[in-house]
Amino acid sequence: MKFCKKYEEYMQGQKEKKNLPGVGFKKLKKILKKCRRDHAPSRIAFNESINQQHGNNCPRECTVCDGNFFPELLKEMEDVVGWFNENAQKLLELHLASGFKKCLTWFKGNNRKKNHLGLIQEGKDLVNYALINAVAIRKILKKYDKIHESRQGQAFKTQVQKMRIEILQSPWLCELMAFHINLKESQKESGGVLASPALFDGCSLTFDDGKPLLSCELSDSVKVDIDLTCSICLDTVFDPISLTCGHIYCYMCACSAASVSVVDGLKTADPSEKCPLCREVCVYKGAVHLDELGILLKRSCREYWEERRKTERAERLKQAKEYWDYQCRSFTGI
Ligand SMILES: [Zn+2]
Ligand SMILES: [Zn+2]
Ligand SMILES: [Zn+2]
């Protein structure tokens, strides 16, 4: 398998990063191989008897490898997404740091330009890491299904998405993609040269038929497209947030979906409130504000952004007034 080698090489090249978690591609393949070699005849006999009883669509588990395969992969996926989220967050905080911190870096002298390039590269490395691991996981699950002629691999994937450890669902991936474009643009403006190429050419924001799309492609094998249309107001997301299920909305729209006022905020949302798209519960409390995406959209569609800002400000004032009126009334008892 060509990808397996590419993946190994990639992980080898990342050795200087301490304790970088990855998918044990070779080990998992070995488990599958053993399953195919040692137990194929009995497995076929087992499947046949089941097929006779229930027809072809009956989901079945492999007693040979399920005990090792899925738990192992699950653990690895948790580590991968954990490491990615932590490091992406660190990098983005650094970039969005307060003016004070920026001053400090400024005073550190002529390192500034180098720092900028360093940040771009680091962002790119992290996106790479996310994408190549996503491909690795997809491939190994496909292999599982092929060997077992099952859909267990796909079912596992759905389960993992529900548990929110699918790396492509991470709000930090979306933030990093926006971050990457933001930095590249400012780099272009200052006339610098980009650092060495990575596995992907970069990310892009396009408006296809007015539909905003944030995309990133990794050597043809995987493409991440994030639709930036808010499914509540049906317009480009404004002041975007990502719920823990990975769905992106305008902050204000999310507040109304969660039946909370902007003054109270999403933190006060009832856990039973559902995401309008996937109907999952408990998705509001851990919502992540997408600051880099906000910056990118503001720059890319300035007029629209200004327009939304005006209406939003009016709505915020209105809600704040209602809130205080209510507070006063309950306080004075009138
Ligand atoms: Zn098996
Ligand atoms: Zn909206
Ligand atoms: Zn959702």
From TrEMBL:
<dbReference type="GO" id="GO:0005634">
    <property type="term" value="C:nucleus"/>
</dbReference>
<dbReference type="InterPro" id="IPR004331">
    <property type="entry name" value="SPX_dom"/>
</dbReference>
<comment type="pathway">
    <text>Protein modification; protein ubiquitination.</text>
</comment>
<dbReference type="GO" id="GO:0005886">
    <property type="term" value="C:plasma membrane"/>
</dbReference>
<dbReference type="GO" id="GO:0009627">
    <property type="term" value="P:systemic acquired resistance"/>
</dbReference>
<keyword id="KW-0863">Zinc-finger</keyword>
<dbReference type="InterPro" id="IPR001841">
    <property type="entry name" value="Znf_RING"/>
</dbReference>
<protein>
    <recommendedName>
        <fullName>RING-type E3 ubiquitin transferase</fullName>
        <ecNumber>2.3.2.27</ecNumber>
    </recommendedName>
</protein>
<keyword id="KW-0833">Ubl conjugation pathway</keyword>
<dbReference type="InterPro" id="IPR013083">
    <property type="entry name" value="Znf_RING/FYVE/PHD"/>
</dbReference>
<dbReference type="GO" id="GO:0009751">
    <property type="term" value="P:response to salicylic acid"/>
</dbReference>
<dbReference type="InterPro" id="IPR018957">
    <property type="entry name" value="Znf_C3HC4_RING-type"/>
</dbReference>
<dbReference type="GO" id="GO:0042742">
    <property type="term" value="P:defense response to bacterium"/>
</dbReference>
<dbReference type="GO" id="GO:0010337">
    <property type="term" value="P:regulation of salicylic acid metabolic process"/>
</dbReference>
<keyword id="KW-0862">Zinc</keyword>
<dbReference type="GO" id="GO:0061630">
    <property type="term" value="F:ubiquitin protein ligase activity"/>
</dbReference>
<dbReference type="GO" id="GO:0016567">
    <property type="term" value="P:protein ubiquitination"/>
</dbReference>
<keyword id="KW-0808">Transferase</keyword>
<dbReference type="GO" id="GO:0009626">
    <property type="term" value="P:plant-type hypersensitive response"/>
</dbReference>
<dbReference type="InterPro" id="IPR017907">
    <property type="entry name" value="Znf_RING_CS"/>
</dbReference>
<dbReference type="GO" id="GO:0009697">
    <property type="term" value="P:salicylic acid biosynthetic process"/>
</dbReference>
<keyword id="KW-0479">Metal-binding</keyword>
<feature type="domain" description="SPX">
    <location>
        <begin position="1"/>
        <end position="158"/>
    </location>
</feature>
<dbReference type="GO" id="GO:0008270">
    <property type="term" value="F:zinc ion binding"/>
</dbReference>
<dbReference type="GO" id="GO:0010167">
    <property type="term" value="P:response to nitrate"/>
</dbReference>
<feature type="domain" description="RING-type">
    <location>
        <begin position="230"/>
        <end position="279"/>
    </location>
</feature>
<dbReference type="Pfam" id="PF00097">
    <property type="entry name" value="zf-C3HC4"/>
</dbReference>
<dbReference type="InterPro" id="IPR033326">
    <property type="entry name" value="BAH1"/>
</dbReference>
<dbReference type="GO" id="GO:0080021">
    <property type="term" value="P:response to benzoic acid"/>
</dbReference>
